[in-house]
Amino acid sequence: MNDFGDALAAAATLVVSGNPELIEIVSLSLKVSFSAVLIASVIGLPLGAALVLFRFPGRLSIVVMLNALMGLPPVVVGLIVYLLLSRAGPLGILGLLFTPYAMIIAQTILVTPIIAALTRQLVEDLWTEYEEQLRSLGAGPFRALPTLLWDGRFSLVTAVLAGFGRASAEVGAVMIVGGNIDHVTRVMTTAIALEVSKGDLALALGLGMILLALSASINAAAFLLRDITRYNKRSRTISPRVTKWKT
Amino acid sequence: MTSGFFRSCLIMTIIASTIPLSSFNSVTASDRFITVASTTSTRNSGLYNHILPIFTKKTGIKVRVVAVGTGQAIKLAQNGDADALFVHHKPSEESFVRAGFGLKRLDVMYNDFILVGPNLDPAKIEGSNRIWTALKNIADANQPFVSRGDDSGTHKKELSLWKISGNNPQKSSGDWYRETGSGMGATLNTASAMSAYALTDRSTWLKFANKGTLKVLVEGDIQLFNPYGIIVVNPALHPHVKWKDAEAFADWLISKSGQMAIAKYKIKGQQAFFPNAQGLKK
Lengths: 247, 282
Known about the structure:
The complex is a heterodimer. By secondary structure, chain A is mostly helical. Chain A has eleven helices and no strands. Chain A has helices at 3-16, 20-53, 59-69, 74-85, 100-136, 141-151, 153-169, 172-178, 188-197, 201-233, 240-244. In chain A, α4 (74-85) crosses α5 and α5 (100-136) packs antiparallel against α7 (153-169). Chain A is globular, with a radius of gyration of 21 Å. The relative contact order of chain A is 0.16. Residues 243-247 of chain A have low confidence and may be disordered. By secondary structure, chain B is of the alpha/beta class. Chain B has eleven helices and twelve strands. In chain B, the strands form two sheets. In chain B, strands 1, 2, 3, 4, 5, 6, 7, 8, 9 and 12 form a ten-stranded mixed β-sheet that branches. In chain B, strands 10-11 form a two-stranded antiparallel sheet. The radius of gyration of chain B is 22 Å and the shape is globular. The A-B interface holds A 31, 34-35, 38-39, 41-42, 46, 86-89, 92, 95, 97-101, 104, 143, 146-147, 149-150, 179-184, 194, 196-201, 241, 244-245 and B 1-2, 4-6, 9, 12-13, 15-16, 19-20, 23-24, 26-27, 35, 40, 44, 48-49, 64-68, 78-81, 183-186, 188-189, 192, 207-211, 238, 240.
């Protein structure tokens, strides 16, 4: 297949020439997905931890639900957000359809269950380790929650990155609610879908390679950051925050 | 002690709320734009990249094109999610206006549908000047035919042509008749990979880069006429519709300047669309 050769060449030409349209599309992709992941983290991290620390009836069903929602099909999310934001829908008055905000909303809905479910699992493992200690210090769930999230922050990076991977890779939801409008809501994945529909498979694959490279560098940066911070903390005790309560 | 955590939470929330507001300058209120629900065939042909800058330069109105199948485009316009509808299935467009969703339908341009298929042409239809006999031959020979299957303008047209040919291919769906349920480009990709027959509009075909062994086999039948019309969405139903700007767009499309811009657009040296507005505005 020399399509792969053509694709590499297409990707290289786009990157080397600093194609302004490519830069616009890439930066919109990053803005949308970063915003969605930030909002999803602000909701998902405390939610995941709360599901470990607070005991209430129906907790298990919520956990099962959350795990199931990790497999939410993007097209379905796109359709639901479309129906909500459509002028004929309940939130139509906001006029958000076919804007980047609509795309952020859709991706946030997709990503929040992933971050929350992975956080719940990670925090549960931490909790079995710290429960006795934290309880003996008289820390209730409200105080234990931030402590556990802080102590698990290095592992939780993976949860956030999983969310980012989902957000930046999906096409079904942003296609419906964004509309793939040139210069307004066109992102990497919808641009790839467009090139496929024009039959320009090499350019489509080239864009795919650029997306993959971007995703790889973001992951690498996150891990590098994690390792540097971890190295700086290595001399300290495993959990300085827990020991502080002793006073 | 935990204040550090809450501080970082707070910072994250602030960042999350400010990033979008400050950086999507394209959605600020000062921007004057209309949203047009249109079809993938016009978008993929590259027509909009050619004519829209001319209109925007003249009026200051930007045009945001949402390109989907005609069925979905009509639905978007019905819901008031677009200011104008620019598609190519006259019967649906007329019933859209009759139902009160749009003000009136204006002829803008036309091109034609073509039947493409593999070089070897196992159903022996090349050069046939009647589309219905060609389709009948494909059905009789049980040769693979790829259909849009997505309720788009092209799909509706294809179904009406099958009806004229006296066949109901949907009985053979999954056998020699394959419905992709996707856009024109995706359907042509499938036909190219399967060496199958397919009906396409000419502009998508001219621009399509992955032809493989496919070539044009049947063209020129009067039945293959493909007219495009523009409709401004009725502001009485959807008060937020920017009908004045949408009407300016419709008026420009049927004006001399708009019609010339359409006529001048060529793909690989071939004219892609032919203007046919009634009572040309000077």
